Amino acid sequence: MTKNTTNHTKPLKIPKIIILSSKFIAFLSTKWVTIYASKLFTTPIKHKVPKREIEMDQKSVQQMIIVPSINRKVNVYEYGKSNKKVLLVHGWSGRGTQLCKIADEMIRLGYSTVSFDAPAHGKSPGNSTIMVDFIASVIEIDKQFGPFEIAIGHSLGGMTVMNAIKEGLNVKKAVIIGSGDIVQDITDDFIAKLGLKPEISKLLCKRFENKYGGIMDDYSAYKAAEKTLIPTLVIHDENDPEVPVKAGIHIHQHLKNGELMLTKRLGHRKILADHQVIEKITNFIEK
């Protein structure tokens, strides 16, 4: 995928060669293209660490830990020295330092942060992963580095935070930014971007259910929101090209104790460093 640096409201594009190869494989076999799509769907892209994240990377205490439940290794970042801790969870193809601007603000407020490179992301080994690995990593990090006062997640990290709370992550408040919501919507969008027929999306979900067990829709963020009692702040950009704003609105509608902040023209990633967004997070945490 190519990274657009000039317009934060343009989606990341899938290279034409991948779209063409997907269509060719679909012409040959529905089964083969489902396998191919599942491989693409579970393979993140490791981007070079941008300059703004270098300070957090250098100042963090880092260690590689094993997550026994999935037998995967993840690189953990401990940033700051306070006993009051905030857990930060990056999104797909992100890194443990991606929420660096938010991390700096948390330290200014008297917290320390713990973040991690999810399996197959950043410095963590592997080539493929899926949200269940993100959730398992959070649960294990909570055991080893918690307890946490607050959990903040971006994109897939937002879905991860919601699902981890459902599975027992005990925090006082949560913030989710640009979070996905309904799993079927996410696979539908992915399959549409590949130029494939909608039926492949259902086959893709079925394949994941057979492999990992459970029902994929049970990981939809709004379902976790229904069971979340703690104060939760949902932040989403109206012009997010990768996760439509309806996802954030829908999650907020299902929260019992939720706040919603909608931004404009920040897209999917610029939102993480926006001054007003960080100020909103600060006010939410402090009140």
TrEMBL record:
**GO MF entry, a single one:** hydrolase activity
Pfam families, from UniProt? Abhydrolase_4 (PF08386), Abhydrolase_6 (PF12697)
Query: Domain AB hydrolase-1 spans what residues?
Result: 86-179
Instruction: Give the top-rank taxon of the lineage listed in the UniProt record for this protein.
Output: Bacteria
Does the keyword Hydrolase feature in the UniProt annotation? Answer: yes
What the entry lists under PANTHER family is as follows:
ALPHA_BETA-HYDROLASES SUPERFAMILY PROTEIN, HYDROLASE
Protein name (Swiss-Prot/TrEMBL): Alpha/beta hydrolase
